[in-house]
């Protein structure tokens, strides 16, 4: 069985154009969604996914042998081919999903008419060698191809040392997928995914012992070790009183501030 695990590595260097890169990629996806919605009747007739993708790319990408119908290359000049294809794939999926939901609505199988939203929050993938390059072993840096507002250039990126140490210790020698850019709490991360093969136990179901986790209300979680017939061999109640105490203090300060001032002035 395959298990996929992921881990986000915080990007420490701040003076790199991550936001312009994210903005231009999302604008490209929005542009392509409107294009493929307009041409979906002809694209939907192509059943083979690869051939449909190729036709979708021909609609927007100019080559010596192909004249694009839409000026994507003019509006997004010199966009890396792998990033352009990622945007095309996402846009095709968005339009296909919308059309499917629209068909179900027309049949009365779906409540509420679906809407096609061109604005999106998709994050770009940095494909290895063409968008992302690793540094020397043991270094907490990487190279990313980013858009600086005028052109696409390689930038030297510093990564959080503790995150890189964890990857080197836990996932050394394992093959990682192309990292995806992630934004969380005003910070940027590179999220790596790792796939590993795990052999399942050949013990019969009746002889297996399992660990069940029940997320509770009064307690954070309850872990139970059980036999197949339901016999409880052990139980552990997990609680984090210090975290809850901190949370209650914060909520108390917010309530007091609301009483003294206006609730509109309270920022969550």
Task: Describe it.
By secondary structure, the protein is of the alpha+beta class. 36% of the residues lie in helices and 24% in strands. It has 7 helices and 9 strands; from the N terminus they run βαααααβββαβββββα. It has helices at 18-38, 40-43, 49-60, 72-75, 81-106, 161-170, 241-260; strands at 2-10, 132-134, 141-147, 152-158, 180-184, 187-197, 209-215, 221-227, 232-238. The strands form 3 sheets. It has a 3-stranded antiparallel β-sheet with strand order 1-6-5, covered by helices on one side. It has a 3-stranded antiparallel β-sheet with strand order 2-3-4, covered by helices on one side. β3 and β4 form a beta hairpin. α1 (18-38) packs across α5.
Name the average pLDDT: 89
Most strands sheet: 3 strands, antiparallel
Question: What would you call the shape?
Answer: extended
Backbone CA Rg: 25 Å
Secondary structure class reads: alpha+beta
Instruction: Estimate what percentage of residues fall within beta strands.
Output: 15-25%
* Largest beta sheet: strand ordering: 1-6-5
| Total of DSSP H or I helical runs spanning 4+ residues | 7
**H/E series:** EHHHHHEEEHEEEEEH
How far do the termini sit from each other? Answer: 42 Å
How many strand elements? Answer: 9
């Amino acid at each position: 069985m395959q298990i996929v695990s992921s881990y986000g590595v915080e990007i420490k260097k701040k003076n790199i154009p991550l936001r312009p890169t994210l903005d231009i990629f999302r604008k490209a996806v929005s542009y392509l969604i409107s294009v493929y919605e307009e041409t979906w009747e002809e694209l939907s007739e192509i059943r083979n996914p690869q051939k449909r993708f190729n036709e979708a790319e021909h609609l927007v990408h100019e080559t010596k042998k192909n004249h694009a119908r839409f000026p994507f290359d003019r509006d997004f000049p010199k966009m890396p081919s792998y990033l352009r294809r990622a945007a095309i794939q996402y846009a095709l999926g968005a339009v296909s999903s919308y059309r499917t939901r629209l068909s179900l609505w027309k049949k009365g199988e779906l409540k509420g008419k679906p809407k096609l939203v061109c604005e999106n929050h998709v994050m770009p993938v940095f494909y290895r060698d063409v968008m992302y390059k690793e540094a020397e072993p043991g270094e907490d840096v990487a190279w990313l191809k980013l858009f600086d507002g005028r052109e696409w250039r390689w930038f030297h990126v510093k990564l959080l040392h503790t995150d890189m140490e964890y990857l080197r210790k836990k996932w050394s020698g394992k093959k990682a997928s192309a990292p995806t850019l992630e934004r969380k709490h005003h910070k940027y991360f590179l999220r790596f995914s790792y796939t590993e093969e795990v052999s399942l136990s050949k013990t019969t179901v009746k002889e297996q012992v399992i660990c069940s986790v029940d997320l509770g209300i009064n307690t954070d979680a309850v872990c139970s070790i059980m036999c197949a017939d339901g016999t409880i061999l052990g139980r552990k109640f997990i609680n984090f009183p210090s975290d809850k105490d901190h949370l209650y203090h914060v909520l108390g300060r917010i309530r007091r501030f609301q009483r003294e001032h206006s609730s509109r002035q309270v920022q969550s």
